[in-house]
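Hey L., structure's done. Input below.
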Amino acid sequence: MNKDNVNHSEIQAGDSRTVKSAKEVLSGASKKGWLARLMPFMGPAFIASVAYMDPGNFATNIQGGAKFGLELLWVIVASNLMAMLLQTLSAKLGIASGHNLAEHCRDNYPRWVVWGMWAIAELVAIATDLAEFLGAALGFNLLFGMPLIWAGVLTAIITILILGLERYGFRPLEAAITAFIGVVGLSYLIEMFLVKPDLGAVLYHAVVPHFSNTESVLLATGILGATVMPHAIYLHSALTQGRIVVKNPQMQQKLFRYEIIDVVIAMGAASLINMAMLIMAAATFHQTGLTNVGSIEEAHRTLEPLLGRASQYIFGISLLASGLSSSSVGTMAGQVIMQGFLHKHIAPWIRRLATILPSLLVIASGLDPTRTLVISQVVLSFGLPFAVIPLIQFTRRRDIMGELVNKPITTFLAGVAAALIIGLNFFLIYQLAFGS
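Output:
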């Protein structure tokens, strides 16, 4: 969306009020309290944060907690800190330039590079969608005993309905996605209450890095790959590019500061939920000697004798909410990728149907869903460099960013994060290809 050509007549009344309130805050005209001033800016990061709580995270966090207890808790903390930085840069790119990351790639790279990046981004989007779709289908299956194939069809229908909220403006969609996040968060808050973890051990392992063997390094890399997801980086810049449009540099600086708050709150919540997943698995499986819990189905069944029947439903509801919300967000990211790289737009329901096919084929073929989830994270790891490196390149250019250009320390920290992410993810690919 071009920031110089925003069609306000197409924005719904709720969105208009949000934009008006935001501009009053940015101009200094608002006399509201701090919370009321903050609310118009909340939303984009919550949508992007869904990618950090998808079924791929369920698979890696549960396996990590079951096999190594709290040992890998610090990996979740470090991964989410890196994700906060990258998501902040992505949001800033949309605010400063009025274009998203995929559009900048199209405008700044040779055509053959753009087509290659688009192909990789689409492969990543399909892999992401596969994990999220399978997760929601597993949620229906575990809660209601529904055959996976019909659970998959129901997932597709509900996802299309959620995406249909876009026609009513950005606020209803943001509210729906945030509600799903709330369900996942509340579910794991209840789980934490049930398992009663050792808070001292939790605090220690959250800040002290430690690996016990090569397998723990490999699984840590999987957690990282499931946490820092390329499609969310593309998406966040699109969510901010035309949401609240201001040209004044000082107002842009204020808008960016509010977006940082949005990122910190949303990604902080995502970090706590991921930590709760691993803590729950460590307390219920690792401490009781059940270190070989290898699938989501096994984790769900094993919870009953350990925590009571209610925990099965809590687990199933959180998995279902995670899968439905992240599947919707994944489809949104796919639209951004196609429109940005190729300047082409297709209806959300058509894209949803196109990405359903690989998932239904996996379900129909009888492949292990959890193993498929893990493999999908490997594909995501391969796509990360093609989103992270351009993001850093563009946000350090003053001709694109203006007054919001990266400070040298920001670019340095982003470069360190990128090097760690890329190095660890390629180590994962190497281990899977050549490891014993």
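The domain at 43-434 is CATH 1.20.1740.10 (Amino acid/polyamine transporter I). The mean pLDDT is 79.

-- N.
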